[in-house]
Amino acid sequence: AKGLPLSAKKVLITAGPTHEAIDPVRFLGNRSTGTMGFELAMAAANLGAQVILISGPTHLSTKHDSIEIIRVVSAKEMYDACHEFYDGTDIVICAAAVADYKPKHVSSEKIKKKDGDLQIELERNPDILFSMGEKKTHQFLVGFALETENEIENAKGKLRRKNLDAIILNSLKDSGAGFGGNTNKITFLDKNMDLKTFELKTKSDVASDIWKEIISRIHA
Ligand code: C5P
């Protein structure tokens, strides 16, 4: 791997959704497939990096000698796994769609249906990316933002609040972008407010574009 742009770099990537248990058979989740995170991991490995891929529940897998997959279920498990590896990492990309809330109480028995409505109380999950921004030392930290309004302004706010080096904006207004599909359309924004918008591409090509942007900044 010598001579490649990411050789000797340790990369941590989060991918996929999280599942928050309600009872032994039910959970709260979202439609993330993990594709963007897996593509970022494969691209990084092909560029010479040692990759830790921390993934929520997904059907995807990848067999690359330089990718270690750590499979987790809940946001709390993803948080713990990230912090286990964070100190030794050079570059972090959080591409996971982490559940913002989890059920406050997890029923140990399957919840039985009764007449009338059911309420489930939710509490906040920790923001994994924010927590890594707080203890950042040398890491190049990258997040994603999925916005439906004031996209650039909101993404800039998120970049500052979470102490990021760059943020990747997917607009839900662009058809073919975001969850589920195999294509994505992104804007890459760095902490100097340098901004670059890309065409709609396959997630594999988007991953290459993202790595080009990151590599040009860590070697600058
Ligand atoms: O604040 P928002 O959820 O829009 O931020 C999205 C970014 O933060 C993504 O990079 C996502 O992976 C990360 N995130 C996280 N932990 C959370 C929520 C979001 O790491 N609990």
UniProtKB/TrEMBL annotation:
GO biological process: coenzyme A biosynthetic process; pantothenate catabolic process
Region (Phosphopantothenate--cysteine ligase): 11-220
Cofactors, names only: FMN; Mg(2+)
Lyase recorded as keyword: yes
Family: In the C-terminal section; belongs to the PPC synthetase family.
Functional description taken from the UniProt entry: Catalyzes two steps in the biosynthesis of coenzyme A. In the first step cysteine is conjugated to 4'-phosphopantothenate to form 4-phosphopantothenoylcysteine, in the latter compound is decarboxylated to form 4'-phosphopantotheine.
Protein name: Coenzyme A biosynthesis bifunctional protein CoaBC
Organism name: Flagellimonas maritima
Included stretch of the parent chain: 182 to 401 of 401
